[in-house]
């Protein structure tokens, strides 16, 4: 089995800070500096997020690409202690290795009116957070407008994010991650346009 963080405490702290900054400032890109070894097809960035955010109280759903890799499941169970669930609505975190296979957001738990924090957070592995079509965002944490270029993204992502925002304060939070960068599209962000 591949190792987890090279320096567990410092790596978890710096990764947590990067994720918090990404969520607080939607559409901005932040480096993941932690050194982590993870079995393919789980990327190093997604593995760092799993080690930082998941534990025995956070059930995880995996897409088909990750679920088919026994080494990924064993790694997550060993280092995070998380249960791997079959139903995406039962997951606290969902990890998706192939953006084209991301299920629509309504397959995940949007939370309840009294407990919107009990929704699913989706971690989507990407190749780039600097190229591809841009999503133009407004909302809390954004001064004016913010453009985020990311690729590859699901074809209907703009529509899904608009529908997700309409559920606020319920809804899913989307974390975009490459091997060494992270950005976030929380439920509070509004997509006001798309650019090529």
What is the C-level CATH assignment? Alpha Beta
Can you tell me the overall shape?
A: globular
Going by CATH, the homologous superfamily would be Bacterial phosphonate metabolism protein PhnH
* Domains (count): 1
Examine the secondary-structure arrangement and name the CATH architecture. 3-Layer(aba) Sandwich
Strand content: 15-25%
Alpha-beta content class: alpha/beta
SS field, number of helical segments? 5
Distance from N terminus to C terminus (CA atoms, Å) equals: 42 Å
How much is the radius of gyration in Å? 16 Å
- The helix fraction, in percent, is 25-40%
Number of strands: 9
Mean pLDDT: 94
Instruction: Order the strands across the largest sheet as they lie in space.
Output: 1-8-7-4-3-2
Q: How would you describe what is shown here?
A:
This protein is α/β, with parallel strands linked by helices and 196 residues long. The chain contains five helices and nine strands. It has one domain (8-195): Rossmann fold (3-Layer(aba) Sandwich). A six-stranded mixed beta sheet has the order 1-8-7-4-3-2. A three-stranded antiparallel beta sheet has the order 6-5-9. Helix 1 crosses helix 2. The radius of gyration is 16 Å and the shape is globular.
